[in-house]
Design a protein that fits this description.
This protein has about 425 residues and is α+β, with helices and mostly antiparallel strands. The protein has 16 helices and 14 strands.
Length: about 425
């Protein structure tokens, strides 16, 4: 019998594929020995939404949040269990509420990252609020949209300052497209951001705790084809910079389950989107990379609860700004300093040692699960729910082939 029981809560929206995968792996994990000499047993539960007394004690040690950015009642529940009960959260509801894409751009610009030129423009249509209308009428300066766009330069993108899932994003090539997109923006607050033309690679990196997977991304493709299975598409230096930027963003904002999009052109890495409260982990989009995501999520969650990692609700932005504001440091030296700050926050060395000592069997567990009937059933049911009947056979073959490729590439070595 385990000495210590831990409960991981899953706060979910519409997705069902990765939660089922995570639950299956938790069941297969068994007892985990800890550095405290005790045995630890992990279970997972799906969080329900109901009235809660602010003084009640939650059963959860850690919650993986995929809902509270969009759904306010559970957001307030997360704040309560973080502030009063020290429940560990992936991610912080405080910074994701206040530090959306706009604030993330501002912070990373100050830190010296190569964020494209970006301008925030006022609402096209004032919000339906009498106080806002009064303030807008009295204080909003008339501005020349074409002159503002000229500061950014064509081509550019217009995109919501706090958006997600590429909703409301338009590529702007000329003044006609600019005015059409702005007129259509209505009550959405928009950025104009310079386009990085002629880039070599679109890299999308998914980070979970101290682990990062950098994937080649093709946004022009349908979702099932956007993540291209290709290894070595970045040089070592480019790959290291993409990983550093991804972990820097997460450590800075206390985000631990987040994706980052970067455009790589020559030796320059331009981060363009890195505030994703619900990063893509669908089996039908990640496909080949889905088992890695589940393994990393399992390892980080178990590490946090078994070691008693304490949540850090406060941020330490001044430490990062001290690096970013130092004129004596080169860009490379700043990146190295940011990487150390991020690795310290995520306890990267301690985590690696813990995984080697106590979670070395996770890769084999994941491999056995991916080759099981349970995984095949999950894949079939997900495809049937996501695609029309006449496309089921095609997509089952497509994702089945990608799964077979992952199995071939990740078969654990067996030693006598």
């Amino acid at each position: 019998m385990a000495d210590v029981e831990h409960t991981i809560g899953l706060l979910l929206g519409t997705e069902d594929d990765w939660p089922r995968a995570f639950e299956a792996l938790v069941r297969r994990l068994g007892v985990v020995p800890g550095p405290d000499g005790k045995s630890h047993r992990i279970s997972s539960v799906r969080v329900t939404i109901e009235p809660f007394n602010l003084r009640y004690k939650p059963r959860h040690d850690l919650v993986i949040d995929r809902l509270a950015y969009w759904y306010y009642h559970p957001r307030e529940w997360l704040k309560k269990i973080a502030l009063m009960d020290d429940v560990y959260l992936l991610n912080s509801p405080f910074t994701f509420q206040s530090m959306e894409k706009h604030a993330a751009y501002c912070a990373m610009m100050r830190l010296g990252l190569k964020v494209p030129e970006t301008v925030l423009v006022p609402y096209k249509n004032p919000l339906d609020n009498s106080r806002y209308a009064y303030t807008a009428a009295r204080y909003n300066e008339q501005f020349d949209l074409d002159a503002t766009a000229a500061q950014v330069g064509y081509p550019m993108y217009m995109k919501p300052y706090d958006g997600g899932a590429w909703v409301g994003v338009s590529k702007i090539r000329n003044p006609d497209e600019l005015h059409a997109a702005y007129d259509a923006s209505g009550e959405r607050l928009m950025h104009l951001q310079s386009s990085v033309e002629g880039y070599d690679v679109f890299a999308r990196s998914l980070s979970i705790g101290p682990e990062t997977m950098v994937m080649k991304f093709r946004p022009e493709q349908p979702m099932h084809n956007r993540y291209e299975v290709q290894h070595g598409f970045l040089t070592d230096a480019q790959g290291d910079e993409v990983v550093t930027i991804s972990r820097l963003v997460n450590a800075f904002f206390r985000w631990e389950f987040n994706s980052c999009e970067s455009l790589v052109r020559g030796d320059d890495v331009h981060p363009i989107d890195y505030a994703n409260a619900c990063p893509d982990v669908a089996i039908t989009s990640l496909h080949y990379y889905f088992p890695w995501a589940m393994a990393a999520l399992l390892r980080w969650s178990v590490y946090c609860v078994v070691t008693g990692r304490k949540p850090r609700l406060d941020t330490d932005m001044s430490a990062y700004f001290a690096v970013g504001d130092d004129p004596s440091l080169s860009y490379a030296e700043k990146l190295a300093a940011y990487r150390k700050l991020a690795d310290d926050y995520f306890e990267a060395d301690r985590y690696a040692d813990f995984c080697a000592r106590y979670l070395g069997h996770v890769d084999e567990i994941v491999h056995e699960w991916v080759t099981s009937d349970e995984y095949q059933s999950l894949l079939r049911e997900t495809v049937r729910a996501a695609y029309p009947v006449h496309e089921h056979e095609k997509f089952l073959a497509h994702f089945g082939g990608l799964t077979d490729a992952w199995i071939r590439d990740n078969t654990p070595s067996r030693h006598p």
